[in-house]
Amino acid sequence: MDWKDYKQKIKTQINIPDGKELLTEKQWAKRHYVKKSESCGKKLWSNGNCQVYSLYLWDDEVRPMSADEIKEVRAEAKAKREAKEEKKLKQLKKQIYREVVSDIINNSFNKVTDNSHKHKLISIDTETTGLNPLEDELLQVSIIDGEGNILFDEYIKPLFCKCWDGAMKVNGITPEMVSNKPSILEYKQELVNIINSADTIVGYNTQFDLDFLSSVGIENKNANVVDVMLDFAKVYGEWSENYGCYKCQKLTTCAEYYNYDWGEDNAHNSLSDCRATLFCYQQIQKNANANK
């Protein structure tokens, strides 16, 4: 039964005058009324489509709010308005960011790729200001070849982002560390050439790194992609009932499993992670070949 049927039925049964009102709890609150007790009211579907289920109250089931209650309601309404405006502002910032970055990308570099230097395999890792490639930015990119030789290792100054407190706690890269570094635009052509020189790209959660590169126009066109994180999840064998698959492990867990010696390197520096990832990849391949 919806509220219209209920209202008419009650009026018919107990001869309620037409002036008597049946409103939702929220509608009464807007008029600064509140239900008299927890037992008051009846939950009904708000319309014939049964999409919204609300508590309805007759006017004799409500009382005027006290001054403190009115103050609380106004504060809640203000907080909701501010949250809504903040959400709109964030969405607008994302839209502007994407449009600006897209324009910069399309006009920032020569798209001719130099494939004169081929690499059978490269290992890649990045550090970023956050987790979303549509609104966060690169802070560091490192790439090594299959022999561990450094092909690229640079800190990068973000184009727009000025602070990244959450990410900084993980990667240790401060705004001061990159304030005088070149932006990604100055490295794009070099990175495009390296990415497109590889037959295989190895990483740990590889798609995360490739998505951030792709967001600034550095795309993998041809290389086979290997995600050591997914491969190691099977090796480690911790099953997740919630997801129905093997649970992914941290790179540090993977490195420890294969007795990797970090030496003076620190985890969460992209070059250090590149080296650890390459080592773990080689161990997984070695074990797989031995079991054939």
Brief overview, please?
The protein has 292 residues and is of the alpha+beta class. The protein has helices spanning 3-14, 25-30, 67-106, 165-171, 175-178, 188-195, 206-214, 228-236, 251-257, 270-290, and strands at 22-24, 33-35, 42-45, 53-58, 62-64, 119-128, 138-145, 150-155, 198-203, 224-227, 239-240, 245-246.
Please describe the topology of this protein.
Layout: H1 3-14, E1 22-24, H2 25-30, E2 33-35, E3 42-45, E4 53-58, E5 62-64, H3 67-106, E6 119-128, E7 138-145, E8 150-155, H4 165-171, H5 175-178, H6 188-195, E9 198-203, H7 206-214, E10 224-227, H8 228-236, E11 239-240, E12 245-246, H9 251-257, H10 270-290
Parallel strand pairs: 6-9, 9-10
Antiparallel strand pairs: 1-4, 2-5, 3-4, 6-7, 7-8, 11-12
Helix pairs in contact: 8-10
Characteristics of this structure?
five-stranded mixed β-sheet, 20% strand, three-stranded antiparallel β-sheet, 10 helices
